[in-house]
Design a protein that fits this description.
It is built from eleven helices and eight strands. The chain is α+β, with helices and mostly antiparallel strands.
Length: 312
């Protein structure tokens, strides 16, 4: 099972204690996947879900909050493979038309697809976001690239949910994908915050554990790369210095150097793999790494000048 499905199944088991939160979550679940069909003395509410756990939650919310006797059916549809589509249906008679108005009070044409009267409290906003993820959410496994998205077939609904996310300091981005509007988050800290907001505690722990391991691995890799680069520079510098000193010796130019530079030159020839700090500790009068580096630059300059003068 994918990490995204793990999150969904965990959220289907989170049942709000307050009626206001149950209504908010149910409203999110119905927001774009529900349709209303006129049926004699009222209308039929029909909601589609892509997994059985979400369908069961819709069924339970309709029964617990509004006392509606719903029915659940399934059918197999072929997309890239075979998928079961679950359909929850409930009849609402004319005396209970207020239920539809409470859950979906605004016509979409007005650009107000969210039942704002249900989102007055912070707990209700969390419940609405939970229902939104259940019906249209996806989050990538934390071992891969960090990516969480909510896909909508209504740009007004996407904009409202984006504003709702911002209430929790979750600043999401939006882009168009074919006929859909996608609200997405790519920052790992914000994805963790989203899982915390909607109540996916187990998924949050797994996400954070993987994130910590990835962070440690990245830090180790950066440190190793840095040390490898420094080692390569040290080796290159040692080879350059050794070649220069050997050339100076071959031409009989060592006596042209001051005694302190001759001492350093002989140590470099004898210990070509040692660092500047190690060479500094071997000198008769020990020097720091920066002091040896200064002396080595002076040695290289004088040696190059002497050989240039000989060649000319």
């Amino acid at each position: 099972m994918s990490f995204s499905n793990d999150v969904r199944y965990e959220l289907t088991r989170v049942m709000p204690e307050k009626d206001c939160c149950r209504k908010a979550e149910l409203s999110a679940l119905l927001a774009s996947s529900a349709r209303w069909v006129e049926a004699g003395d009222g209308s039929d509410l029909i909601v589609q879900a892509d997994n059985a756990a979400t369908a069961r939650k819709i069924y339970k919310l309709l029964k617990d909050v509004y006392g509606l006797q719903a029915a659940v059916s399934s059918e197999t549809k072929k997309y890239f493979g075979k998928n079961h589509i679950y359909e929850v249906s409930a009849h609402i008679d004319t005396e209970n038309e207020w239920i539809q108005q409470e859950l979906m009070p605004f016509p979409r044409a007005l650009g107000k697809p969210v039942a704002s009267s249900l989102l007055g409290k912070s707990c209700c906003k969390r419940a609405y976001l939970r229902g939104t993820f259940l019906s249209r959410g996806f989050v990538n496994r934390p071992e891969g690239d960090y990516h969480l998205e909510l896909t909508f077939n209504d740009e007004h609904l996407a904009a409202e949910v984006q504003k709702l996310l911002a209430r929790f300091e979750l600043h999401a981005h939006v882009f168009e994908r074919k006929n859909s509007t996608v609200v997405y988050i790519k920052e790992s800290e914000k994805i963790a915050d989203f899982l915390r907001v909607v109540g996916a505690s187990n998924a949050l722990l797994e996400f954070e554990n993987v994130r910590i391991i990835k962070s440690m691995r990245n830090n180790v890799n950066r440190q190793v790369n840095c040390e490898t680069a420094n080692l390569a520079k040290t080796i290159d510098a040692s080879l350059r210095q050794t070649d220069l000193i050997e050339a100076l010796i071959a031409r009989g130019g060592m006596e042209s150097l001051p005694s302190n530079l001759r001492e350093l030159a002989m140590l470099r020839i004898e210990y070509p793999d040692n660092s500047l700090q190690e060479l500094g500790e071997m000198l008769q009068v020990p020097l720091s790494k920066s002091g040896v580096a200064y002396r080595m630059r002076k040695l290289e300059r004088l040696a190059e000048e002497w050989m240039d003068s000989v060649d000319s």
